[in-house]
Specification:
The structure holds 2 protein chains of 2 kinds.
Chain A: H1 5-30, H2 33-36, E1 41-46, E2 53-54, E3 60-72, H3 82-89, H4 93-106, E4 112-118, H5 120-130, E5 136-146, H6 152-155, E6 158-160, H7 163-168, E7 179-181, H8 184-188, H9 190-194, E8 198-204, E9 210-213, E10 229-231, H10 235-244, E11 250-256, E12 261-268, H11 281-290, H12 299-302, H13 312-322, H14 349-355, H15 358-369, H16 377-393, H17 416-422, H18 430-433, H19 447-459, E13 462-464, E14 469-472, E15 485-487, H20 492-508, E16 523-529, E17 537-544, E18 551-557, H21 567-580, H22 586-594, H23 631-634
Parallel strand pairs in A: 2-10
Antiparallel strand pairs in A: 1-8, 2-3, 3-4, 3-5, 6-7, 8-9, 10-14, 11-12, 11-18, 13-15, 16-17, 17-18
Chain B: H1 2-11, H2 14-35, H3 50-70, H4 74-78, H5 80-97, E1 99-101, E2 104-110, E3 113-115, H6 117-133, H7 143-162, H8 166-170, H9 175-181, H10 187-204, H11 207-225, H12 233-260, H13 263-273, H14 284-294, H15 322-354, H16 359-383, H17 401-420
Antiparallel strand pairs in B: 1-2, 2-3
Helix pairs in contact in B: 1-17, 2-3, 2-15, 3-17, 5-6, 5-7, 6-7, 6-16, 6-17, 9-16, 10-12, 11-12, 14-15, 15-16, 16-17
The chains are: A alpha+beta, B mainly alpha.
Amino acid sequence: MSENRKFFVYGLFVVVAIIYLSRLLYLQVLDNTYETASNSIKAIPDIPMRGQIYDRKGRLIVYNTLVYDIYVTPNKLKVSDTLSLCNLFNITKSSFDSLMKAAKTYSRVKPSLFMRQLSKEDFARIQDAMVDYPGFEYQKSSIRTYSAPVLAHALGYVSEVSKKQLDAQEYPYYRQGDLIGQSGLEKYYEEQLRGRRGVRYVMQDVHSVAKGPWKDGEMDTIALAGQNLYTSIDLDLQQYADSLMQHKAGAVVAIEPSSGEVLTITSAPTYDPALFATRDFSKNYAKLALNPYRPLYNRAVMGSYRPGSTFKTVQALVAMQMGAITPGSVFSHAGAPMKCHGHGGLSGVHSAIQWSCNPYFYHVFRRMIYANNERNVFKASAAGLQRWYEDSKKFGFGQKLGIDLPSEAKGVLPDAEYYDKRIGQNQWRFGQIYSLSIGEGELLITPLKLANLAAIIANRGWYIAPHLVKGVGKNDNPLPEFKEKHETGVNRLYFEEVVNGMEMAVVRGTVSRGAIIPDIQMCGKTGTSQNKKGKDHSIFIAFAPKYNPKIAIAVFVENAGFGGFAAAPVASLIIEKYLKGHVDRKAYEQEWKNKNFLQNVIIPKSQQQPSTPKEKPAPPKPEATIVKQDNAIISKPING
Amino acid sequence: MARNEQNIIQNLDWLTVLIYAACVTMGLFNVYASVYNPEEQTKLFDISNNAGRQFMFIGTSALIIIAILVIDHKFWEVFAPFIYGACILLLLVVLVVATDIKGSKSWIKFGSFSLQPAEFAKTGTALLLSRYITQPNINLSRWKDMAWAAGLIILPMILIIASKEVGCALVFVSFLIVLYREGIPGIYPAIVVISIVLFILSLFFSPLYISLGLSVIGVLVFYFVIPRYDRNRKTAINLVVIFGAMMLFTTSVEFLVNNVLQTHHRNRIKVLVDPKIDPTGIGWNVTQSKIAIGSGRLWGKGFLDGTQTKFNFVPEQHSDFIFCTIGEEHGFIGSAAVVLLILGMMCRIVFLAERQRTRFARAYGYCVAGILFFHFLVNVGMTIGLMVVIGIPLPFFSYGGSSMWSFTILLFIFLKLDAQRPFTLSRT
């Protein structure tokens, strides 16, 4: 009877073996959760150096500096003497405690960021002592470094990718903690600048200590270094423009007309881009964001102003091309609702430009609006405006020019539909829109667009979309859209009329005497941009020399009054600097560097500092965060 | 005598020896793999690391095998009480002069080597138990004889538990197999098996569900299993009593787990019930072990190419968790091969035991098979998350001198007895 019991024993053995075999089959073949949970192989991202940014003469503007991030693993940390550790890192006991608390909240066994971006010097001091404190480790990273405190708006900045950006990305590339270009060129050329991250697979032991490459690096991907950007910015000119724009709010955009390359792009007030490359990023950002003069606002591409009289050049060109006037047309002042500045007799378009005669352009615009066969005055106005809109649009107004900077403003070039919506179809006529004739009313442009207008006039009829980068990866390798010529469709002869007028405006016209550059034929047009809040903005567009122009420029100075007064001197100095390499008019230069128009800027009530009611609110002094462009900074040697 | 020795070589069951050799060799290479450090070339035959020492243990095992084959087969039966006594004495000694290794006081240190008497106590007990239960006047269905047999088993168990080697003590439960084969009423192993099943069930289900399930089974048994003529009041009452006892046991499990067991034992049970509980704490071993084995896939990562079992992710990987290394580096193919090898050896031993002419040899064979089975059941089971983690080695694979020698002795005494079979007269 017991003999049969052996079968039970066999059965027991076999059943257990079968159970175990099935379990193994499940664990090892069918179920792959455990394969992916493998924790001995760690992917270490290999983040390549971000591309550097050069100016048009090959000088470095932005480069990378090696810094060290310190990480701490709370469970491994053994601190016998907290005080000396705090001294080592140069922090207080309480901040040490709060850092450790944050680290422990994240994880006790995984390293968390303890201190960011230690300089090489600071790290060298700490490195030796670090062996005494197990639990600390470091990782190399890099920060953006600037050879001069200029061009903050155009360059933009780099910061940690935000939660929103992480969620929004189409192809998941960025991960928590990665850096990404947040504005300016850094954002526009993010993909080129960042390169491609590589991954190294390393084996690590249970204490996360690296134990060499996995499979001898077979699965690793090589990091691809970021591409350098070769910009068309002239660093000297940029610094010079910045120095002229100190104590002022406004913008300067200078373009090489033949190529559309931006030589200088300034938005004032500005700030030192290096402020955003430090570990105090958020503190500095908050400070700048609260500054009443809005230094973070890139006026050059985002600021929308009325073009004022500078727009008369467009009106003249479009009208002549349309056939509404001829170069020799003369109009009396009678019937125009606006005053003239007072000038001698006019002999055609060029003198109207020279003297910026308001009534003249009232009539010009009127001719254009009514240059059709519509009997109904409303319908005629709509048809006329639409035609005018189509022709003016070719100058790049009311649309993005496509500069290689993010957040370019479109501005406003009103068409018939615009007024239909605002007033009502067939309910408006020329009488309601005549302000457009002299660049006021609903027109809104950006300094960039006016600089482009100067370039169009300089080119006598065409433009290439303004751009800052003329080479990605290698020099003279711009994006394809920056090789394309845009025609305005206006006859070259008509441009000569306007050019002559602009030349005369400088020699003996609306432009103040001091703005005349010795030996250089500058053609310019003043503009006075009305605004509801405070004094007029001063605008000036110009190019030089008259023939074969090398530079076209638009200068905006907010609340500085008449265009020929403030903007023209700044423009003339910049042109002289660019064409001659130096400025002879030293006293004039100094005068305009020191002129302060910031005090005229009306600060919105919500941002005013609390002050006693009777006292006239004194404009707050520019804060330390607004860079003072004194000569000391400008003469700073530029690396590279 | 010379002829006799030659016959022993001829009569030795070479199949078992072959499986033994295969296991030991695979074990050695896997111990090497588990201590192998890719950064510094670890040498296989270097006494300073565990692989080198394992090699030495295997070498000395060969000497032990020769000794066992030379010693007269009668020796083991005759001297069984003395061997048993010596083991008990050693277990007592160890309690007094033990070296504390990882919280267990079961090691005697000789220079740089430590010896664990508990490992050898298994062999001693197997010998004396086999001798006792095969005496002609012993009837295992008698209470008195059963009590004596149980006493032989329980005495070393108590001493081993006293030295905090609960896992090692539990191995003695495996003697139930030989007792079963040699005639104790089937009800006793059945009770043990049912208790274990109930214990496991009560870990996963509430007593309410278990009582419902048992009631259903009881009713089914009453109407379909029990013959019509037995379907009376008395049988019904018996069933109710059995049901009551089972429920009492079930409800007491929680009390047992929470109040009688020590914390680390309790934690191991918790991990078995819920593997996701605290994977970095008490669930670490099991989680890491499963990751290691699971990451091996079908073909494994290759010899020395394992990553989970290097770098200390799996604790005790060269001894109790050696199966992880096999699973990771040799995949399902490798681990299945190991399972089949051990299954083959166990079945072969049962087969050999059944053909013995002496009851002693047969009983001893069942002891060997039972002990191997228990180690296999628990060791492999815990690495794949089917068993509570109990620190006992995988026979012939795990690193360790004591276990290597004791398993070799255990197995080869039986092989010697088997080889002697043609020259022995049957006593049964």
